[in-house]
Amino acid sequence: MPLREAVASLPVAAEDRTGYDREESFGTWIDADRDGCNTRAEVLLDEALQAPEVTGRCSLVPGTGRWYSWYDDQYVTSARDLDVDHMVPLAEAWDSGASAWPKVRRVAYANDLSDPGHLVAVTKRSNRQKSDRDPVEWMPDQAVHCHYTADWVTAKLRYGLSVDLAEKRKLTELASGCPNAPLTYTPAP
């Protein structure tokens, strides 16, 4: 579905943070394939432009490896300087419908490696600036607004999450300035 049509299809609902507790609601990073690497490490290994040294049970050696943080156009040479960001932050997902999911689905959401746009390695600074904000309150560098908008909308559609009215207006405005490229996604289980 083209980007603008995808934005138009997002359901609008009021957001509600009642009962949200990050760890209690979504758990922590897991090692789904039991290879010793948790979700964070899997993302860092997958997105590395230059693979870091790995020791023991998936411990990334500081100062090795190289990554590109597309939110802020920065190259990073230590995994310690990176966070793994949920495109749609956990609190935003909770506010937008995840509060009604069983915990097992929320844990799956927090650790979903099946869509490369869902979890992204970015500088700690950019991730902390973003925090749990939606596109009304935070956007990455101007040069990647269209990329970010497409990934945000894809995540919302993939998980059947709603948007609030201000978010819908902002996404509509952003999409109007972007190529109307098709978004492809598989609905999450």
TrEMBL record:
Residue ranges constituting the GmrSD restriction endonucleases C-terminal domain according to the UniProt record: 73-173
Pfam families: GmrSD_C
The organism's taxonomic lineage, starting at the top: Bacteria, Bacillati, Actinomycetota, Actinomycetes, Kitasatosporales
Name recorded for this polypeptide: Putative secreted protein
InterPro entries reported in the protein's UniProt record: GmrSD_C (IPR011089)
